Amino acid sequence: MTIWESILYGIIQGLTEFLPVSSSGHLAMIQNMTGFGEGMDALAFNVLLHLGTLIAVCIVYFKDVIGLVKSFFTLCAKLFKGKFKLSEYSLHEKLVVYIIIATLPLFPMMLIEDYLDIVSGYLGLVGALLIFNGLVLIVSDKLSRGNRTLDDMKPKNALLIGICQMFALLPGISRSGSTITGGLLNSLERPDAVRFSFLLSIPAILGASVLKLPDFFKNTPDAKTLGVYLVGAVVSAIVGICAIKLLGYVSKKSNFRIFSYYCFAAGAFAIAWSIFM
């Protein structure tokens, strides 16, 4: 891989991880069209790209991340003292609870992860899922704007968002799009739905990266190749920050229709490629 290819993949990862257009769907398209993604070097590169996007979330939501880390320990202290009522918790302590609840549905999905990966090999199916993702985004725009804040959330709301996140394990379904839609279904204000979606991405990205670390260390690329990969990771972090900022702006000023149109076009292109190429 050249450094320019690494930069290109970093841009794609940074954009698609946070914009509601499915990073896994784009990765599957690239793998099917170019063959990239076969072998352990590609696995190492993907781990670094995801760590780059994880850094992006932590930078943009630095205050929230610090608040969540501190609140985890204060929450443990309150639970030890027998304080189990949400009304006794601060906002960040509640968010710790909600993020844990929303992440739980991902664990049983790990049992069928290998079967879900098979979908990536069928470009036409990935294209169909991208089109479905576009329809989901249109539905999210049709939902009435809620007036519920993160402080007003309940555990059942977090669980519903977590269930929506399960579908994002399919290549072509956007994690941010599905969780934001889940937040809107729970009558969250759109900016709060976006905020919770990005905070929820932290354990999802971190968990996926940690699971791949053993293979990463077993097949660590040489120093030169690792340097090229790190450039892509840095680019994914920088572009990821821009993508988070962009989606935050769009959520306040506009709708997701432009992203749904893009998903329709990308999905149609993938289906056409699978048929004619």
Which short descriptors sum up this protein?
single chain; 13 helices; about 0% strand; about 280 residues; mainly alpha
Task: Give an overview of the whole structure.
By secondary structure, the chain is mostly helical. Helix content is 78%, strand content 0%. The chain contains 13 helices and no strands. It has helices at residues 3-18, 23-34, 40-60, 62-80, 91-103, 106-109, 113-119, 123-142, 155-166, 175-185, 190-218, 223-253, 257-276. α3 (40-60) packs across α4 and α3 (40-60) packs antiparallel against α11. The longest helix is centred in the C-terminal third of the chain and has 31 residues, at 223-253. The radius of gyration is 19 Å and the shape is globular. The relative contact order is 0.21. The model has no long low-confidence stretch (mean pLDDT 88).
Q: Characterize the main sheet.
A: none
* Mean of pLDDT: 88
Beta fraction of the residues? under 5%
Distance between the termini: 24 Å
Uncertain residue segments: none
In helices, the fraction of residues equals over 70%
Q: What's a concise summary of this model?
A:
The chain is mainly alpha-helical and 277 residues long. The protein contains 13 helices and no strands.
Strand and helix map with partners:
Layout: H1 3-18, H2 23-34, H3 40-60, H4 62-80, H5 91-103, H6 106-109, H7 113-119, H8 123-142, H9 155-166, H10 175-185, H11 190-218, H12 223-253, H13 257-276
Helix pairs in contact: 1-2, 1-3, 1-12, 2-8, 3-4, 3-11, 3-12, 4-5, 5-9, 5-11, 8-10, 8-13, 9-10, 10-11, 11-12
